[in-house]
Design a protein that fits this description.
Porin, mainly beta, 8-stranded antiparallel β-barrel, single chain
């Protein structure tokens, strides 16, 4: 799994490399998240996940006052509980890439709203404790959408509040009795700090 995450970030870094040559248009952030996956059902199986907290880090490059691109990494851990009595606890890592529309707000302004859309991969890795035997790691392609606002606290430091939605197919960890083949949605509100350089 680490190799997969490394390959995804290497590809994203390659596409973003022209951004690194300029000053003042780059931004990094670290955020705390809430992770709320919707319950799903299919083929007679119901999946009711627990809720969790997590961390979200991103690198953002602003082309101008109207648009930016963003590379994201997040981590959380939660459990999937199935109506047949099985369960799987898993670490979930995210690697995504998104386009942001930033509304043409001047860099000197205090408030900077944005909306975003993108795609990427979620990596589900079962944790031995709290998991039925036979569970295997799975990757899920995901669609990302969201929005938020940053509020400038100082010259380069801002507070960031936002919401992200992730749409993907429910993980079953290759266990037939956990297979729903159902799409699901994870709501991910977040708050953190950004630094522009």
């Amino acid at each position: 799994m680490r190799i997969k995450i490394g390959l995804v970030f290497a590809a994203l870094a390659l596409f973003s490399s022209p951004a690194l040559a300029q000053q003042g248009n780059s931004e990094v952030s670290v955020n705390f998240t809430g992770n709320f996956q919707k319950s799903t059902s299919g083929f007679g199986v119901s999946d009711s996940p627990s809720y969790s907290g997590g961390l979200l880090a991103n690198y953002r490059y602003h082309f101008n006052r109207w648009s930016a691109v963003e590379v994201n990494y997040s981590h959380t851990k939660f459990s999937q509980f199935y109506n047949n009595g099985t369960q799987t606890q898993a670490n979930v890592n995210e690697a995504t890439f998104a386009y942001l529309f930033t509304f043409g707000v001047s860099e000197e302004a205090r408030f900077h709203p944005f909306v975003e859309a993108g795609t990427g991969v979620l990596f589900f890795s079962p944790v031995a404790a709290g998991t039925n035997s036979g569970s295997l790691s799975q990757d899920r392609a995901t669609f990302l959408y969201g929005g938020g606002v940053t509020y400038k606290l100082a010259h380069k430091l801002s507070l960031q509040v936002g919401y992200r939605g992730l749409v993907y197919r429910t993980a079953d960890f290759t266990i037939a009795t956990q297979f729903t083949n159902a799409p699901t949605h994870m709501a991910e509100p977040y708050v953190g700090l950004t630094y522009r350089f």
